[in-house]
Structure formats: structure tokens, C-alpha cells
Amino acid sequence: IVAFFQPKSLAGKNILVTAGPTFEAIDPVRGITNLSSGKMGFAIARAAREAGGNVTLVAGPVSLPTPRGVTRINVQSAQQMLEATVPQAQLADIFIATAAVADWRPAQASDQKIKKDGSGNTPQMSFTENPDILATVAGSERATSGALFCVGFAAESHDLLAHAQAKRIRKGVPLLVGNIGPATFGADDNALLLVDAATTVEVPRASKLELARHLIAEIARRL
Ligand code: CTP
Ligand code: CA
């Protein structure tokens, strides 16, 4: 009831969020993925909706309920995530890339299940680099002209601050959010590092939903 009377900081805004891992097929029954739970991205979609935004969530394979009032598009691979995200970004005011997109996919997915040959030989696999969804959207005319505000995430195992600062510039985004480890994948809480051109601010450990609400307020303030 209290929330109902609060001012809606994202009223009338279109917010696009990517979340979860991607799944890169090896053959019809196997693939490569990662341990992203999607929880942070889903919490951000929920918080953006609570703030009055029209929210579209492009989700990799996760078993999480869709936040109320959010439009969800399910995808598997990085290529599918790109194809779902790029047209939606044409309509968005804010793009928040939380997905743990697989950096590489098997160069050739087999259309038949790969069988053991009985002699102990193992399959040899080569990889192709996946498209960078955030860099693609952040390089678009809407983003470079300031009509679309892009936010990136970074999960690093070491040197978070230096990597986050470098990544913000490399991706060409005004705001980069670092996950302060350890082991944020799958956890219900986290701590964040917000890196923009001027400042670095730590958001102390809290539930992912509380962090998401804080981040949405920070983004709304910057629009
Ligand atoms: N990202 C993306 N598409 C990719 C790879 C990453 O949209 N193919 C986005 C992520 O959603 C995140 C940001 O880019 O918002 C940073 O992802 P991260 O994996 O930390 O960075 P990379 O550029 O892939 O570099 P590396 O994994 O080598 O650190
Ligand atoms: Ca990566």
C-alpha cells in the first residue's frame, strides 16, 4: 500500500533487461552453459516494473517465475539473445545487460547426437566467438545519441575495480556494475560496485532485490 503512493521514478519509460546464462548447442542433446542463476536480472526487471517502467526481459534458460507485469522473451543461445534484444533496444530508454552470455560457442553444432566410436577417442571441438550484445546495443545510434541509457555488468574473479573501469570504457557504457564476489552466481545476496566516468561507489551486501531497487534508483537519477 505504501509503495502505491510512492512516486514512480521510471513511469512511462521502456526498460530492456537481459538475464541468465546462454546455452550453446554441441548437438541436439548437449551444450555449453554457465552457472548464472538469472536472479539479479530478474530482480532488476521486478524493481524496474515497481518503479513504473514498461519492462521487457530477455531471458536465457533459467527456472525463475516471470516478475508480475513484465514481458518475458525466452531464448537459448547468444545469437538468439542478440536477435531478440536488438529490435527491442530500438524501443527502449534503458538497457541493462545482466546476462552471462557465453563468450564462445562450438563452431559447428552437430544436428545428430554425437556417438562414442567405441575406441576411446574423444570429440575435438573448436569454438567461434559469440556476438557481444551489450557492445552492439551500446554502439547503436540511439545509445550514442543519448536516447538509450546502457548499463553493463561485470563478474570478475580478481582486480574488480580495474577490470570494471576498463570494461566500462571498452563497452562504451555510462554505467558498469561490478559483482563483488565471492560466488555471486546463484546466491540470494550480493554487493555491488557502481562505476561511472566520475565515481566508484560500493553498494553494501544486501538481497538481490534490495540491490536491484537501489540500482534502479541510481539509473533513474542519471536519466
Ligand atoms: N555481454 C554481452 N554479450 C556478450 C558478452 C558480454 O552482452 N557476448 C555483456 C554482459 O551481459 C555484461 C557485460 O557484457 O553486461 C560484461 O560481460 P563480461 O562477461 O564481464 O565481459 P566480456 O566482455 O565478455 O569480457 P570477459 O568475459 O573476457 O571478462
Ligand atoms: Ca564474458
UniProtKB/TrEMBL annotation:
Which cofactor is recorded for it? Answer: Mg(2+); FMN
* Key words, A-Z: Decarboxylase, Flavoprotein, FMN, Ligase, Lyase, Magnesium, Metal-binding, Multifunctional enzyme
Q: Is Transferase one of the keywords UniProt gives this record?
A: no
Using the UniProt annotation, give all residue ranges assigned to the region (Phosphopantothenate--cysteine ligase).
15-223
Gene Ontology biological-process entries = coenzyme A biosynthetic process; pantothenate catabolic process
Q: Where do the annotations place CTP binding?
A: D103, K113, P131, D132, I133, L134, F153, K167, K171
Free-text remark on how the cofactor is bound: Binds 1 FMN per subunit.
User: Residue limits of the DNA/pantothenate metabolism flavoprotein C-terminal domain?
Assistant: 10-221
> What pathway, per the record?
Cofactor biosynthesis; coenzyme A biosynthesis; CoA from (R)-pantothenate: step 3/5; Cofactor biosynthesis; coenzyme A biosynthesis; CoA from (R)-pantothenate: step 2/5
- Similarity field: In the C-terminal section; belongs to the PPC synthetase family.
Q: What does this gene product do?
A: Catalyzes two steps in the biosynthesis of coenzyme A. In the first step cysteine is conjugated to 4'-phosphopantothenate to form 4-phosphopantothenoylcysteine, in the latter compound is decarboxylated to form 4'-phosphopantotheine.
* Name this polypeptide is given: Coenzyme A biosynthesis bifunctional protein CoaBC
Gene behind this chain?
A: coaBC
In terms of the whole protein, what range is present?
180 to 402 of 402
